Amino acid sequence: MNANGAPADVSRERAERFLRDRGADAIAHPGGTLLAHLIRVADVLADWGADADVQLAGLCHATYGTDGFDRSLLDPSARQQLSTLLGERAEALVYLYGSCDRSAVYPRLDTAPIVFRDRFTGLDHEPAAADLRAFMEITAANELDVMAHNAELAARHGAALYGLFAGTRSLLSERAWLACRSRLGPEAEDAAGN
Questions:
Q1: pLDDT digits (tens, 9 = 90+) for 93-118
Q2: Dihedral sign of CA atoms 165, 167, 128, 99 in order
Q3: Radius of gyration of the chain, Cα coordinates, nearest whole angstrom
Q4: 17-67 pLDDT tens trace
Q5: I want to staple 102 with a disulfide (CB 3.0 to 4.6 A). Which of 23, 41, 43, 67 is the partner?
Q6: From 3.10.25.10, 1.10.3210.10, 3.90.1570.10, 1.10.238.10, which CATH number describes the 8-193 domain?
Q7: Integer angstrom CA distances of residue 114 from 35, 127, 132, 138, 189
């Protein structure tokens, strides 16, 4: 069940239909289409044991666009529409992810308290601990999928992402951390012959 009380599979089906209706299946993205990427992210989160709301947020994480992907499927002024579809918590996580000003936030992720800057409003705030953990799980699942499907981006950003995830390990589940370490860490470089 998600926060709306709907079975997770029904909520996911509705969310996937929403993403298709918004054209996510026609937007190019590493590994095929944006929709294919979003589904893979949600599947990885499920494999890592994330709850239904985090999985839905991972599925819809690019709805408002992101600091790294500026194409949006829904204007942030229409948040209530997504909240009605996903539930308040899942939508709030989608907004947290999409609104993250990465250049301001990423350097702060290993300090306490962690202060987020909303790229839409310019305002700073301190997310709840559970929201920070969900944000980092979604970030890890997203970035690992992008790196797996774009060798150029992996070569350019893999080491920095590994540093980000190593520095925020306490916010990641054990499964997420192991995936980051095996795909981005020194072991991955050794396996690739670098």
A1: 999 999 999 999 999 998 889 999 99
A2: negative
A3: 16
A4: 999 999 999 999 999 999 999 999 999 999 999 999 999 999 999 999 999
A5: 67
A6: 1.10.3210.10
A7: 31, 8, 9, 17, 30
